[in-house]
Amino acid sequence: MAFMELSLFLSFLSFLAIFCAVEVGASETHTIKFINQCGHGTPCLVLNGQNVSTGQDYTVNDIFAGIAYLQTGQCNTNGEGCTLLEMNLINPACAGCGSSVDISLISPHVYNVEASFAYYNGCDGYGADCNGPNCATAFFAPEDWDVQRECQANNVNLLIAFCANASDIVLGGGGSSPASSSSTSSSSTHTSIPLPSTGTTLSNTTMSTATILPLNVGSTPSASSSGSSPSASAKKCLTRPSSTSTLARREPTALGAKIHRRHRALRGSVID
């Protein structure tokens, strides 16, 4: 009898070891999706000073710390001169150590278009929308901690919307500002995207039962795209800073991570 109990116990330990090994070895994943309803401009997603997306879905099988903005002609590489979104997407390793996203209008960043974000595939619809130069949902000073939006779900994704409310889109309400024309896109002028229900991902091919709204998805810019863009060709995301002094003055990825860590430290959840 004792031998059988020992065998069962050892079997349980083996199962537990395998389970833990799988959990530890499993990598996290995050997808960032863009919707541009402004009728002009090019979404820019920047990681370590390099542009990694001009509106295409971007998926990373790791943590992600970067910035985003809509390039309308006046934005520098790190979003100077425009509405900036800062994001740290990470699976929480402790209470309060999960993802954090915010909108910043701290100088040298200034409002250029409505910008919003919302989580999905976890914390669905939770986010912020800055729709004016004096919006209450953006950083204007480093101590404006209350504008950060945190999510403690694993493998959470992010929708970033320009001239639209991302939270409304994720929750199925549409929430877009009127756009006079299409955004710059190489694939099509209008792309219908299913609005996700709780716990689902945004996808062009899934959620057949969801409400369908015509949404302009920022994509690879094309000079032949039609619309009321201020110029004949789409604005391009810059690939490097215009000056070393600008980069030294503002390094959003590092600053964003520092702000988020400091915020949590002040709340007592993380000690930096």
List keywords for this structure.
single chain; 272 residues; alpha+beta; Thaumatin; 7-stranded mixed β-sheet; 5-stranded mixed β-sheet; 19% helix; globular; disordered C terminus
Structural overview:
This is Glycopeptide. Residues 1-26 form the signal peptide. With 272 residues, this protein is α+β, with helices and mostly antiparallel strands. The chain has one domain (29-266): Thaumatin. Helix content is 19%, strand content 25%. The chain is built from four helices and 14 strands. It has helices at residues 2-25, 166-171, 244-249, 252-266; strands spanning 30-36, 42-47, 50-53, 58-60, 64-71, 84-89, 99-104, 115-120, 127-130, 138-139, 149-151, 157-162, 191-194, 212-215. Strands 2, 3, 5, 6, 7, 10 and 11 form a seven-stranded mixed β-sheet that branches. A hairpin with a 2-residue loop joins strand 2 (42-47) and strand 3. The protein starts with a helix and ends in a 6-residue tail after the last helix.
Concise account of the structure shown:
The chain has 272 residues and is of the alpha+beta class. The protein has helices at 2-25, 166-171, 244-249, 252-266, and strands at 30-36, 42-47, 50-53, 58-60, 64-71, 84-89, 99-104, 115-120, 127-130, 138-139, 149-151, 157-162, 191-194, 212-215. The protein has a single domain, classed as Thaumatin (Sandwich), CATH 2.60.110.
